[in-house]
Amino acid sequence: MSYRRAPAVIRQGKLVVRRSSEDPAAGSAAASNSEVPPQSAELPKLSQRRKLALLLTVLFTVIPFSLKMASLRLTPMIIMLIIMIIPMTFGWLRRRYGSIVLSDLLVAGFSLWSALALIVNHGSAEAYQPAGIAFLSSFGAYLLGRVLVRDRTAWHRLSTMIFVTLIVLTPFLVFESITGTKPLLKLMSLFGGGVPPVEMNRRMGFARAQGSFEHPILLGIFVASLMSITAYSLAFSLRRIGFATSILLSSIGVVCTLSTGPLLSLNIQFFLMIYARIFKFFKSRWKFLLIFVFVMYFVLDIFTTRSPFHTFVHYATFSSQSSYNRILIWQYGTESVRNHFWFGIGLGEWERPRFMSGSMDNFWLVQAVRYGFPAFLMYAGAFLVGLTQLAKADLRDEQLDLIRQGMIFSLVGTMVAAVSVHLWNASYIWLNFLLGATIWLFTGQQPDAARVENERQTGSTPSRGKPSRSRRLA
Fold first, then answer.
1. Per-residue pLDDT tens for 312-356?
2. Lowest CB count within 10 Å: 144, 189, 351, 434, which one?
3. Quick check: helix, strand or coil at residue 73?
4. Please, what sign has the CA dihedral across residues 430, 435, 439, 442?
5. Smallest Cα–Cα separation from 105: which of 90, 92, 87?
6. Cα–Cα distance between 321 and 99 in angstroms, integer?
7. What does 111-155 look like in DSSP terms, one character per residue?
8. Neighbours of 174 (CB within 10 A)
């Protein structure tokens, strides 16, 4: 039996199908544009444990304190991952959270290789602690996203939580940017083990807001990653006001950090939003954009005196000094990768001129320098494969398509911005969690709005087979 796609929204944990006046089966109910919840359209309800775990994940990302345990100082997020890693791993191996996909294996491979690289460079006696933390922060955080976010209901709840986080954080960030004081860090220091404040020169007369993170850049990357997610995920439940408010709050938060990396991530997401809107009727718009980017890369490489990377860095930094420093980082960093190709240098010092600091402002390059090129290849591959599978996923309604766009825009913005910044601690864990939290969209069995409405009318039971194919991010 054929059917039209019916628009749907989430209301009180249910998938509600709106009948349009053109639906002949709607009868008199269509005239009043009433909303009828299909009996078989119930979305999976979250258990109290998953709700609590999602809440703790968001809280532990933005609350900066640590606990002293034996010889280790552990953050609450790491403690949470230590508790959950074994049951999550067994559940993953038994396919309780959906089928095992290539991104899973690549992240697992990267995590094991990075732990092995630390042991090779420093010995097992010295490396077992940092190797364990690295494994938990990468594969553990990724698996946490896979476990907690497995359906539309969980994603909607996560989006709502981080939207509330934006609302709470923004006034503190504005106050910090104007006055230079750090109220969040002072508040957290009362509980002990807080993050030390970072004193930096003002830019354009404003202080660089640090919020509750170790550095303004980390705060900015985190806030920027929330914009597309909240804007598109809440577009149905909060309509235009939710979309606009999400963009406004994220933009204010990123601007308060006055950091080029987060601003770059934000601008990339803005561009993708506008591009998607303008060319929404062009079916191959994303393929065309990818081809255009590759062509421009080769044009810059052939017809300019600077490499495409040098050109990118030049326009992605506030000052020529920062630009020059990042070019030197790339030069000496890639040389280190060539010299230590397989297992990197671990946590040791990378070779560089004496006038350069030890800070390496390139997240992707750090992975190759520390753990070797194979580790970088697996880690970057996990993101690229995940994005490709997201783009090719056959979705069933407009809401899932918007969620998909928010996921991709956020990840792409963060991945490109990470070329000029480094991520660590909470921001690194959040990135891996976010990647894991997107996998359900192409592995989960979500109720289709039109299909469940059709099943309700015909009296058939919900199909548990392969989801219907309807929409791709072409």
1. 776 666 666 777 788 899 999 999 999 999 999 999 999 999 888
2. 351
3. strand
4. positive
5. 92
6. 48
7. HHHHHHHHHHHH-HHHHHHHHHHHHIIIIIHHHHHHHH--SHHHH
8. 16
Q: Helices 363-371 and 320-339 sit at what angle, rounded to 10 degrees?
A: 30
Tell me, rounded to whole angstroms, the distance of Cα 409 from its chain centroid: 9
Q: With both helix axes pointing from N to C terminus, report the angle between 102-122 and 124-135 in degrees, rounded to the nearest 10.
A: 160
Indicate the pTM of the whole model: 0.84
Length of the chain: 474
Whole-number Å distance between alpha carbons of 152 and 53: 16
Biggest CA pair distance of the chain? 79
| Residue tagged 């009727």 (tokens) | 281
- d(CA 345, CA 381) in angstroms, rounded, equals 21
pLDDT, tens digit, 9 for 90 and up, residues 81-90:
999 999 999 9
| The residue to which tokens 């404003």 are assigned | 206
Q: Angle at Cα 182 formed by Cα 177 and Cα 183, nearest 5°?
A: 115
Q: For the purposes of burial, counting CB atoms within 10 Å of the CB of 459, is it exposed (0-12), middle (13-18) or buried (19 or more)?
A: exposed
CA distance 188 to 63: 7
- Token digits for 150? 């497995």
Q: Which residues of the chain have pLDDT under 50?
A: 1-6, 10-15, 17-41, 445, 447-470, 474
Q: What contacts 32, CB < 8 A, 6 or more positions away?
A: none
User: Which element (helix H / strand E) includes 251?
Assistant: helix 239-257
Give yes or no for a contact between 364 and 381, defined as CB atoms under 8 angstroms apart.
no
Tell me which residue has tokens 């705060």.
219
Whether the Cβ atoms of residue 403 and residue 441 lie closer than 8 Å to each other: yes
Question: What is the rounded distance in angstroms from the CA atom of residue 272 to the CA atom of residue 387?
Answer: 14
